[in-house]
Amino acid sequence: MRKHKSTNIIVVITFSLILVLSIGYISFGNEQSLKNNKQNLISYGSKKQKNIALTFDDGPHPEYTAEILDLLKEYDIKATFFVLGKLAEQYPDIIKRQAAEGHEIGNHTYSHVDVRKATREQFEEEFNKTQEIIRSLTDIESKVFRPPYGYFSSSLQNSVASYFTAFQSIEMAGIPPILGIYTVSSCL
């Protein structure tokens, strides 16, 4: 039974990575706007170190997140979980466990709002509400944000420029970097 669960977790992780890479490759079409608007962006960590960031979003899920946390604990691995505020409210114990086990908790908006269609006010409400939920559950100010659907543009950056201080990219041979993690300095 344990081997079956581990296999399921590995399948979920692999599928998540493929999904993120696919969506990111399709969604991040506004490369020129990024080149023109770099004041708060850092695209890479040290290229001398061989590190990888393991991230999950759209959770917490009542079953799968706990299984992933068990597996990460077994192998002493830390990850970043980009949570939806409405699910964090539903499953506060999972968020508390993530923080207690030393994982980073990031903001993924309250309801997975499509930032391409939301007004600035709608986005800020979603963002700030999730920041407050994370803070109230963990006593930690979330420092990272991942936009739903992986959408990023100069317009999004301009509307929340005070939040972002860095992004992390994923780069594979022959594929342009895919932006994934945005570091947050504060919320309004």
From TrEMBL:
Gene Ontology biological-process entries: carbohydrate metabolic process
**The species this protein was found in:** Tissierella creatinophila DSM 6911
Q: Which Gene3D superfamilies match?
A: Glycoside hydrolase/deacetylase
Q: Which Pfam families does this one have?
A: Polysacc_deac_1
Specify the protein name. Peptidoglycan-N-acetylglucosamine deacetylase
Please report the stretch or stretches of sequence annotated as the NodB homology domain.
50-188
Instruction: State the InterPro entries in the record.
Output: Glyco_hydro/deAcase_b/a-brl (IPR011330), NODB_dom (IPR002509), Polysacc_deacetylase_ArnD (IPR050248)
- Domain of life the protein comes from: Bacteria
Look up the EC number in the record and give it. 3.5.1.104
Gene from which the chain derives: pgdA_1
Molecular function GO terms recorded: hydrolase activity, acting on carbon-nitrogen (but not peptide) bonds
Q: Which PROSITE patterns match?
A: NODB
User: Which keywords belong to this entry?
Assistant: Hydrolase, Membrane, Transmembrane, Transmembrane helix
Q: Where exactly are the transmembrane stretches of this chain?
A: 7-28
Question: Do you know which SUPFAM superfamilies this protein is assigned to?
Answer: Glycoside hydrolase/deacetylase (SSF88713)
